[in-house]
Amino acid sequence: MLNIVLFGAPGCGKGTQASRLREHYGINHVSTGEVIRAEIARGTELGRSMEEYIKTGRLAPDAVVIGMIANYVAEHRDAAGNIFDGFPRTTIQAEEFDKILGGHGLGVTLMVDMHVPEEELVRRILLRGKDSGRADDASEDVIRNRIKVYREQTEVVGAYYARQNKYFEVDGVGSMDEVFDRICRVVDAHR
Fold this sequence. Notes:
alpha/beta; 9 helices; 59% helix; 14% strand
C-alpha cells in the first residue's frame, strides 16, 4: 500500500496536489482539515469543539485527530493507498500514526514536504480567502499565526520521518504542473 504524507505549511498547495496525486496514483485523499470543516458545517459535537481552534489558527487536539485517523485507517485498510494531507501535524501524532498503521501491517511509505517561502504562503492564502469563505483565510494575523504554529509545532515532524529515511523536500513554487512533476518524481523513486 502506498501511504504518502503530504507535508508543508498552510497555503503551500497540499490540497491541490493531493487531488492530482489521488487521480494519478488511484489512491485515497485524506484531508483532516476537510473532515473537521465538514463536521463544523454539520454542527456536530466534534465540529463545535473544533471551531474555536480553526478560527484562531491553532492546531486541533492530538487525541481528536488521532481518533479520526484511526477510524479512517480501520475502514480503508484494503485501499491501494492514501495521501494524508494535514496529518500528522505533531511528533506525537506521527508516533501514534505509525502504531495505527503498524497495527494493520502497514506503514508510511514517504513524506513529501512542499517548501514555499512565508511571504508567498501569506499571499496565496489571502488570495484563496477571497473565494473560500473560510474565516481563517481572510485575516493576515490569523494566517501568520497559522504559519508560526506550523513552524513551532509541525515542522519538526519532518525530522521524525527523516530519521526513518522517509522525508523528501520539493520546491513548492512554480506552476501546478511543475510542482506535481517534482512530487511524482520523488514518489516514483521511493515507492
